[in-house]
Write a structure and sequence with these properties.
single chain, Growth Hormone, Chain: A, about 230 residues
Amino acid sequence: MMEMPIAVDRTVGKQQKLMMLLAMVAGFCDAYGLQHFKTYVSFMSGNTTQAGIMLAGSIANSILPLTAVLLFAAGILVAALLDGYKYYAKRWMPFVSVALIILLCATAEVYFKLSNLAGTAILSFAMGYLNNTLMHIGNQSVNPDFVTGNLNAGVRHFAAALLRQPMDKPQGVWDTHKYRAMVLLSIWICFLAGAFCYATTTFYIGNFAIALPIIALLSCPIYSYKNPSILN
């Protein structure tokens, strides 16, 4: 007799959906930054490696990837500081702010042709800011643009599921290594899908493709207000 699927906690399921959307936005913007500014604006592991290699040649060559890392960190810092401010409305301000920053950057790129350094700085800050919007799905720590970490944790949970190891302090019968592996790997897939989406939509609609992550981010406040527990 086939086993009935176990229902996942509703709040956790909604957090997963939001995180998957944010991962697609991060992947989309990373691809945009790589094409327009020759640098990752979300994948800081890649920038760190590039900076290390370029430092062997000259400090000047490493400025672009180092700028991405520093501004990404600045975005995280600002988001963390604002999160402790009593008037900060985390249900809409992060999403709207990042959407406006992306719009500003894309508009300036079209009309004024931003330098690689300026474009990288703006988008890296935005992605760092977005990184602090949702940092967990249930008890599982996640990040929309932490590709290596999510992939590593996902595969480790998958290995634990194959070994039939028990979950430490599960939130419910649904909270298993298999479920957490699925969550983390789905975020990785969504990041990949975001980059693919940028490449395909840009081919057909050019500069207007950047409207997709902006629309996605502007829809997030509606989702968070309808589901008030997801950002607690």
